[in-house]
Structure formats: structure tokens, C-alpha cells
Specification:
single chain; 3-stranded antiparallel β-sheet; globular
Length: about 170
């Protein structure tokens, strides 16, 4: 692929997608609105900042679908699971991390990758050309959320969980 892959959103999904694409030799630009445009929940401008919890839930890959997803991400040499292991905290059968160092280390690894750059600006409209991944969640800016609703015909957007993405 000779064209650049653009990813809207530098959360965990956007960061992992950027990492996986770059590891395959694809040039990637992550478009992240923070820290220029804040949200009520984020405290930093770091990529992959966890805002609701420090838990990735169960890490049991033999008895739990979430744990199986963790196993698959590790098998794919995923950045998020790699850094979760580095910053893991005791949490019984769950995978919990020290949130701030986790986000700092994901950001540092992304910024150090020669094929990934980060553009700090708010994207308010859905792109009409090029290669894009829209990796936004419940804290999507109002203008972009409205454009997603209009493009999909949905009255409202619903974000159930990072483990259950909505794909159109």
C-alpha cells in the first residue's frame, strides 16, 4: 500500500490499529483532538488514556472471551497488551494497569515509530477520499458525532464497550 492510512482517534483502538499497520510497513497518521480539544473525562493528551477504569477485565483466555481477545492481541504482537504487561497491577484474574505510565509508554512507543505520526487537530467531518479508520468512542466531538449519525442514518450513537465495536 503506497498511500497513507489516516486514523481518527488516538485511544486504545486507534493506537493499536496504527501500530499494527505500521508494523506491516504502512505509513500512518493518527488524528487526535486532544489536548487541543478536551473532554470531560480525559486528563492528559496522551494516547491510549484510560478514563473510566484501569481494568482490561478478565485475563483468563481459557474461560472468558475478553481473556481470549487479550491472548489474540498478544499473539499479534499488539502494543496495547505489551504495555499492559509492563504496567500491570495486582488485580486477581483481571488485567489492570497503572493508567498514567501505561498511556505515557504507549504514546512514547507510537511517537518513536518511524512510520507513525500524530496530528493534533479535531476532525469534524467524515473524510471523502483516502484510507481512513474512524476509531472514536463515546467521547467523540459533537461535530464528528453528528456527521457519523448523518452518514449512518442513526438517530443516536451507542458505544457499549471497547470490546464490542460498531462497524459500518
Amino acid at each position: 500500500m503506497s498511500k497513507t492510512l489516516h486514523i481518527i482517534g488516538g485511544g486504545m483502538a486507534g493506537s493499536e490499529a496504527a501500530w499494527q499497520a505500521a508494523q506491516q510497513g504502512i505509513t500512518v497518521v493518527i488524528h487526535e483532538m486532544r489536548p487541543k480539544v478536551g473532554t470531560f473525562a480525559h486528563r492528559t493528551g496522551h494516547l491510549a488514556e484510560m478514563v473510566c477504569s484501569n481494568s482490561f477485565r478478565s485475563d483468563d483466555h481459557e474461560s472468558n472471551a475478553v481473556g481470549l481477545l487479550h491472548w489474540e492481541m498478544r499473539a499479534a504482537n499488539g502494543l496495547i497488551m505489551e504495555q499492559a504487561a509492563v504496567h500491570r497491577l495486582p488485580a486477581g484474574g483481571a488485567l489492570a494497569v497503572d493508567r498514567d505510565p501505561f498511556a505515557q509508554s504507549v504514546t512514547a512507543r507510537i511517537m518513536a515509530h518511524p512510520l507513525i505520526s500524530v496530528s493534533y487537530e479535531e476532525i469534524t467531518e467524515l473524510p471523502t477520499d483516502g484510507h481512513w479508520i474512524i476509531a472514536t468512542g463515546p467521547l467523540t466531538s459533537g461535530a464528528l458525532a453528528q456527521n457519523i449519525r448523518a452518514a449512518t442514518g442513526a438517530d443516536a450513537l451507542a458505544f457499549f464497550d471497547a470490546i464490542a465495536p460498531i462497524v459500518y
